[in-house]
Fold these 2 entries.
Entry 1:
Amino acid sequence: MSTIETNRSFMKSNFGAEAVHVSDQNKGKPPPPVQKEFAPDAKVIDLPEPKAKTVIQKDFYSCLKQRRSRRRFTQKELTLDQLSFLLWATQGVQEADPDGYATLRPVPSAGARHPFETYIAVNRVTGLWPGMYRYLPLDERLVLEFEDARLGPRLTDVALGQGFAGDAAAVFMWSCIPYRGEWRYTVLAHKVMLLDAGHVGQNLYLACEALRCGTCTIGAYDQRKADALIGLDGQSEFVVYLAPVGRLD
């Protein structure tokens, strides 16, 4: 089978067609954590509560109609209120199962597994040092991964020379922890996890339109460099999607 044929097969639903695989869920194993831990001495930043008043464009029809991929941004900073709203719209936790099995969020996810971690490469956000942060959706906080006042050129390099990635006020970098999906769906998990990434990206697009900000999701990036920038091993966790965000005129 050629590579193209293999990839086409991957895109199809094999639920019911594949041989039955007993999942770790069915074996009674506990689910993986819905949020990565962080070091006790890490710098943690409280986020303002997402507020409806942060929204400028309140007409949902207009947000849908005006949605575009936007690659030209001003040098204005994102506010912390805007960043908090975008994080909530894409991965915020509205309800968490007390047993740690599932979370309910503004985006759908197969089996409510939500396999992603959200990293934010900050160039210009009010009140934040430039650097790499990770969103803590259960806590509505950010944890600082590292400071770097010259992230822009590194982000452009990760994005294969796409300069708007380095020019953005912030870049959302979504990683996948595949075992979160595999715990329930085994070999069938990987297609639905990529579908989930699309849901997350579309929510970011619409939330940006509501704030009169812009974004353009990126699937063409250097995998090795993206993982290395965040410090991921590329196996148990790896980057699957990028999205630069900036202010518009």
Entry 2:
Amino acid sequence: MLWLDQAKLLSDGKKSRIQCCKSDRSMIISNSNSGYGAYCFRCGFNEFEPHGERSISHILRGRAEIEFKRSRSIHLPFDAIPICVNTCSEESQAWILKAGISLNVAADQYGILYSPKMDRVILPVYDDNGGLHYMQARALHGQEPKYINTSNPTENVLFWAEDWRKDDQVVITEDILSAIKVGPVNVACSILGTNMTAERAYKITLEYDKILLWFDNDEAGDRCRKTSRKQLELQGIEFIRDIRTEKDPKCYSHKEIQELIDQCLNS
């Protein structure tokens, strides 16, 4: 079966579209925890093939991811270790370093860790009292989902970067690593995705009345931009500006970030 051969080339948790009954890519194939699947939206072809023998490490990783997501109490994975050169995988180090963030800053300042069992980077979020409030586990090999989030409510959870320094404005980003990258230039805050809730908007506006939104240049980012404006305006904020770039904030140098912020403030 042609679709099965192609599905076996997919990384764990990945999906892809291929040609089926017509010239367009109407079939979606997947490699999930339970097996390989195929479904054509045009002709209705639908098949599933269980995995063959799977490695012990593969099974344990899947269990660890489920435990991380479903845990009722928020605690770091038992095998989590600080991001560093000697003990972490090269992929986990590269994910941090390619954003121009040093491993020392990631580990010492923000408590970023690596879980060998899940083979994911652990991004902790602490509350004002230093207590562990929330976590994300970020995939390194294209697995889906890209982020695994702990199951506790997140309506009011925010990740602050460099909040020890008071700037006149705050830059809001989608992901944690982008906030960390912007942090040395300007106070930054991640909303942990693309959902600006009323609770998050309220907490942000307790500290700032000048808001710069720097979201991804895609459909989800556009929706987040509109929702964020609405929620912030409901809090009485009048100064809201968009930083629009082709790439993610973490792809830019600190000099470029400063220039983009200055351009936005003066526009």
